[in-house]
Write a structure and sequence with these properties.
alpha+beta, Pemi-like Protein 1, Chain: D, 2 domains, two-stranded antiparallel sheet, two-stranded antiparallel ribbon
Length: 122
Amino acid sequence: MALNGVDLLNAVEQWRTLPKAEIVRRCGYVSTSEGGQERLNYTAFFEALLEAKGLHLGNGRTAERRRRGRSGRSLPFHTKVQFNGNLMVGKAYIDMLEAQPGDHFMIRLGRDSIRLVPLDEA
């Protein structure tokens, strides 16, 4: 069981002279790989440590993550007209807008751009 909050802070203070790997291990941030090897979860440890110190990193859905899309790749902000005349907007962009089925958008045409502006239903 991984330590959190005050317990984690106290453990880190108590074992501060030990190597980082040993502190992470003793605090319970360890998993076992499919091959049976021990894996230290440094990221989870440091996130829990920051949380215990009062720094909240959010729910993981940061603006940067939304901009990159699900695959982690940077999204190209360009598209092309399909053979049937439709202009395709991919799911990653819809996710960035946090759009749900049935949401309405106003299409604004600029000199060299097209903007989708969410419409409030209220």
